[in-house]
Amino acid sequence: MTSAEIISQPNLNTTAYERIELFNMPMDVVRFDQAVDQMIAWAQGDRSRIVITANVDHVVRFQKSAEFREMYAHADMVVADGMPVIWGSRFVGKPLPQRVAGSDLFPALASRAAAEDVSIFLLGGSPTTADRSKEIFELRHPNIRVVGTYCPEMGFEKDDAENERIVSMIRKAETDLLFVGLGSPKQEKWIVDHHQACGTKLCIGVGISFSFLCGDVDRAPRWIQRLGLEWAHRLVQEPSRLWRRYLIEDSAFVGIVLRERFKRRPRE
After folding, report:
1. What CA–CA distance (Å, rounded) separates 190 from 71?
2. Which residue, 65, 78, 146, 181, shows the most beta carbons closer than 10 Å to its own?
3. What is the distance between the alpha carbons of residues 256 and 40, in angstroms, rounded to a whole number?
4. What whole-number distance in Å separates Cα of residue 188 and Cα of residue 223?
5. Considering just the CA atoms, what is the radius of gyration of the chain in Å?
6. Tens digit of each residue's pLDDT (9 = 90 or more) over 96-119
7. Where are the beta strands (DSSP E) in the chain?
8. How many C-beta neighbours within 10 Å does residue 221 have?
């Protein structure tokens, strides 16, 4: 499936924001508050929805991987997770209004879920972080309904029996909102493959957010986030794991942005 085919699909959004093509990808022009409102409405709805948070790594992978593009074809909302994506959108003349990061959506959606009786399930994370995130949310929001947590072992996604067990667990818990913290692209693939069977109303991948909430991984201060240097803060903490992605693979983002800019330049 090509990016043009993805963009041509009907937009399933019900609120007044626009879906555009940016860096050959579908992207929703949406503010943080709009995104939260829509997601909670979907979590109270009557069908299963998927939200993808697009960062620089996603933009680069989207250009190369047909499988990853197919995952995006299933997304009901795509938001910009990362200041470089926002800056890139402005540079090419398709400005997105605001960063909508998965790690900010995680606590914001949990707060709204508590207020509006939306049940949540936490899948993934490092060992114990899902359980501890549940405890933190329950301390912050006495009315919250965290109906389940589960941290599967490495490689679980290749085990059909384990996947069936997880799906059954989520379905039996009557989950409205499923947070999946498996890292990308594993979390997006798992959501696309299993969200219908889970019976959830909304699924969103939130990466390392469980560890941020628990304090196991130090998230960059807001001023570093605003400068678009959250990646550098992460790199300093986990250089052996992240150096190749951030310094080599994601450097292709610059070329993607420049190609988009020159493609749109009017003829003189």
Report:
1. 10
2. 181
3. 33
4. 29
5. 18
6. 999 999 999 999 999 999 999 999
7. 18-22, 25-29, 49-54, 77-80, 119-124, 145-150, 177-181, 202-205
8. 11
